[in-house]
Design goal:
The chain is of the alpha/beta class and 211 residues long. The protein has helices at 15-24, 60-65, 73-78, 165-170, and strands spanning 3-11, 34-35, 40-46, 51-57, 85-91, 100-103, 114-117, 127-130, 151-158, 176-180, 185-190, 198-200, 207-210.
């Protein structure tokens, strides 16, 4: 089963300064949206082959008690050792490439669901999610605001010595590498770092971008 990265998110309690930092390195922000029943909203940066999503909570009670409560978004913001990252994949079928449970959010069409990695309760690991294969962008979707930014590598560090089966499975994805036994960090490489630039977003975000 082919597994390919679609987009990813960074959960943050302070989306405004995080978005400002991304704009300062030349990224253009696109449209945002909210997630009914999940208590979350986002700020998004659409690139040539992926989307960088800043995810934040606008309704903590809904996040803790709504249909998306099993995602543990509120707990991930509260727990210092929790991973703030989520990786969202597509497959060539409507099944996941890793152990998973079905999540039927209010904002998907009837009958569609995400498959959430069985490691979702392991807060030190990132959320790993498969999108429905039938859920595709509309034919008249606008082009990405950052067409010259093409993701060529994603490395995620996790402070666990022995990754779960879910995390081991996603490491088979060509675009993704997992670095166990290290503090939380997301390292993104765009365009094979042709410009030779490195941007460290700490301490606002546990993020390094090379472009």
């Amino acid at each position: 089963m082919a597994l390919r990265l679609d987009h990813f998110f960074i959960l943050t309690g302070t989306p405004e300064p995080a978005a400002d930092l991304l704009r300062k390195i030349g990224m253009i922000e696109g449209a945002s949206n909210t997630h009914p029943g999940q208590g979350s909203a986002n700020r998004r940066f659409f690139c040539a082959n992926t989307t960088l999503e800043l995810l934040y909570l606008h309704d903590v009670a809904e996040a803790e008690n709504g249909p998306g409560m099993q995602l543990g978004l509120a707990q991930r913001l509260e727990f210092d050792q929790a991973s703030p990252f989520g990786l969202i994949f597509r497959t060539d079928t409507d099944s996941a490439a890793f152990p998973a449970w079905a999540y039927y959010p209010d904002y998907l069409p009837d009958g569609m669901h995400f498959l959430v990695g069985a490691n979702s309760a392991d807060l030190p690991e990132p959320l790993c999610i498969c999108m429905p294969d039938r859920l595709q962008p509309p034919a008249d979707a606008a082009p990405p605001e950052n067409p010259d930014w093409r993701l060529t590598g994603l490395r995620i560090s996790v402070p666990v010595a022995r990754p779960s089966e879910t995390l081991e499975r996603i490491a088979a994805c060509p675009e993704v590498s997992v670095n166990p036994g290290h503090p939380h960090l997301l390292e993104l490489t765009f365009n094979h770092q042709q410009r030779g630039r490195t941007h460290d977003f700490g301490p606002c975000l546990q993020l390094i971008i090379r472009c």
